[in-house]
């Protein structure tokens, strides 16, 4: 029998990131997946990053993860979303060449020391009581591990729907994972059904591009990874078109034939990624919806029409697609479909994504009720780090709401659960002025270096950058100017006679104008990237100080751990309702307990005093 410290089941975005993170921690890791060739596959849209999601990618990158590096290698259209808004809510995104992305991930996995990829279907776990100690493959072979991370995505009892046709599948062309789903029943975990959908894929050579507006890549690209400055692949444009009244009529007339609306699907779909059927029903007064025509690769004519996912029958898909400007003669290469799958209520997980009540079992990705590559990869990072930490006898690696979007997501999932597929938004983070995509490395890479999961090249690059930022910031803070002097330089500052530091004055610039700042502050050597970063910090410094103080308060509550065996039954004065909720959710910290619906300050004080009396 083979032995590993950590076994990761599933080679999607969660699995690849989990396995790589575990291996970077120094754990001997196996990645078990149905198809080696499927590592790094994008099941749906060919894009990485975006609003909120770009923050997650940067945070994964800060831990030396795969997604940002692979996205930069495969990126064919880099755009910074929300460019006109403040840096805190801007989201780096790139459209990716599917094949390049896959091969970038496969190269990174192959080059990762401590990591072995094994092809096969996991059909069961080896258990000794509540300890999970290995995986059983379909051929009967067994692999032992100290910790297992399950990342089976949309495969557990996956059912694909096109109109009234149902087929079993994990995603198109791939078998579902049924035996493992059956075996997991014995774990008696709360479980439900969710669904997601994908649009038809179009043959780009049959699109009338001349009739379409084009959206181009940014002239000055913003990369996903802190390691990169420039795209590596050729940059291309996307077409933009829109649905019209006729498209909507076709969809409306055929609604009953859609798997979703014909009553064939029981799972709940992602509200923020609605199908064309959902759009027509939910936004009935809208006469048109934008459709982005995104090429799937540089040497591939397949086009992904972003905005029209569907589970209508194939012939209806052809009719509505051809009603759209520029797509009048378009050929569909693969019809859109909806997929329904099992997920587990993430409230059964701890902050390290370990399954409560079991030793050595972690869950990450779509099976925890999320949707999206970035959400999956970020959970993979958390579960991979923690599975390795457990296997190596090290302390848990925790992400909090005050440190990262990853912490926000994990906390949302484990304390609130999901009623629909969860995706990240900047609005989910209370402290978004301090949790920016641009400072993810400053926030997290020191922790990652301390854990020993950052490669030498990244460590050196990060430390050089941190040294430059600290040096120039302190020099800018030492120089002071009167409001008069600053006005003379063209700064819009209140004429209050007060002296301001050069660092504070930076925030008055609309953009980090190299020339003005360098002339004014006389720092000819300061690299432009350093100036741009200090400008962002200056922009938010007042608010950030306030948020940091609030975050400190929350952190104190997050640090107050509630023991896993805490007995709520013996707490006098706790209402029956709250006792039941606390016993069911088993919050790991006082902060999490505070977020349980209906929780009162008085109840929190009771829990707190009990913990203190036990210390
Ligand atoms: P997956 O990427 O699904 O990977 C699961 C992995 O587990 C696969 O490698 C599989 O081979 C492996 N596996 C499964 N069972 C076993 C087993 N028993 N043994 C060994 N290996 C196993 N996201 C969006 O953000 N927006 C969308 O609009 C969107 N639409 C989607 C539409 C469709 C049809 C699909 C399929 C997905 C869609 N997604 C969308 C979701 C996105 O693809 C997922 O969120 C993301 O891929 C989840 O990553 P994951 O690693 O959790 O799982």
Automatic annotation (TrEMBL):
Its main location: cytoplasm. Pfam families: GIDA, GIDA_C_1st, SAM_GIDA_C. It comes from the Bacteria. It is found in: Cytoplasm. The keyword Endoplasmic reticulum does not apply. NAD(+) binds at residues 269-283. GO terms for cellular component: cytosol. Its cofactor is FAD. GO terms for biological process: tRNA methylation; tRNA wobble uridine modification. FAD binds at residues 10-15, 122, 177, 366. InterPro entries: FAD/NAD-bd_sf, GIDA_C_N, MnmG, MnmG-rel, MnmG-rel_CS, MnmG_C, MnmG_C_subdom, MnmG_C_subdom_sf. Residues 538-609 form the tRNA uridine 5-carboxymethylaminomethyl modification enzyme C-terminal subdomain domain. GO terms for molecular function: flavin adenine dinucleotide binding. Homodimer. Heterotetramer of two MnmE and two MnmG subunits. Belongs to the MnmG family. NAD-binding protein involved in the addition of a carboxymethylaminomethyl (cmnm) group at the wobble position (U34) of certain tRNAs, forming tRNA-cmnm(5)s(2)U34. This is tRNA uridine 5-carboxymethylaminomethyl modification enzyme MnmG. The gene is mnmG.
